[in-house]
């Protein structure tokens, strides 16, 4: 697995606002060790020492759990970026509101959408 510097930075920003449950096999970033798999660490190390590295699935699951039921990832070659858009609301009543994240990678776009949701809370 390879993460860009921007994706790691966004994961750090998400970690400041939301505690992700540590699960066996998750990937984490540590300033001293770089990327590491969490199979050998314990929960007390969570926080500033180990920053959880989110995947696209983690982002989509988080958005769904928060009630964002219409999520789309759009590749936009004309703009040379990728957009993640999530809406919340009932289908018959129309869209209540939406959040958007844009980035060079799909993960970057999804993390920006997660950050937008966390900032609204």
Structure description:
There is one protein chain. The protein has 121 residues and is of the alpha+beta class. It has one domain (5-120). It is 31% helix and 26% strand. A three-stranded antiparallel β-sheet has the order 2-1-3, covered by helices on one side. The chain has a three-stranded antiparallel β-sheet with strand order 4-5-6. It is globular and about 40 Å long. Residues 39-44 have low confidence and may be disordered.
Task: Label this structure with key terms.
single chain; 121 residues; 3-stranded antiparallel beta sheet; 3 helices; 6 strands
What's a concise summary of this model?
With 121 residues, the chain is α+β, with helices and mostly antiparallel strands. It has one domain.
Termini distance? Answer: 31 Å
Instruction: Please indicate the percent range of residues in DSSP E strands (runs of 2 or more).
Output: 25-35%
The level of helicity is 25-40%
Structural class from helices and strands? alpha+beta
Instruction: State the major sheet.
Output: 3 strands, antiparallel
List the domain count as a whole number. 1
Number of strands: 6
Weakly predicted, low-confidence segments? 39-44
Outline, from the CA principal axes? globular
Question: What's the overall average pLDDT, rounded?
Answer: 80
Helix-strand topology string: HEEEHEEEH
**Can you list the strand order of the major beta sheet?**
2-1-3
Helix count equals 3
Radius of gyration: 15 Å
Assembly annotation: single chain
């Amino acid at each position: 697995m390879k993460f860009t510097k921007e994706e790691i930075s966004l994961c750090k920003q998400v970690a400041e606002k939301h505690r992700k449950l540590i699960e066996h096999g998750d990937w984490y970033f540590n300033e001293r060790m770089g990327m590491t798999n969490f199979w050998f660490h314990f929960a007390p190390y969570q926080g500033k020492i180990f920053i959880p590295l989110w995947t696209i699935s983690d982002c989509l699951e988080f958005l769904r759990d928060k009630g964002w039921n219409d999520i789309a990832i759009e590749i936009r070659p004309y703009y040379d970026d990728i957009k993640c858009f999530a809406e919340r609301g009932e289908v018959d009543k129309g869209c209540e509101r939406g959040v958007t994240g844009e980035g060079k990678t799909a993960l970057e776009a999804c993390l920006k959408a997660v950050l937008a949701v966390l900032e609204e809370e």
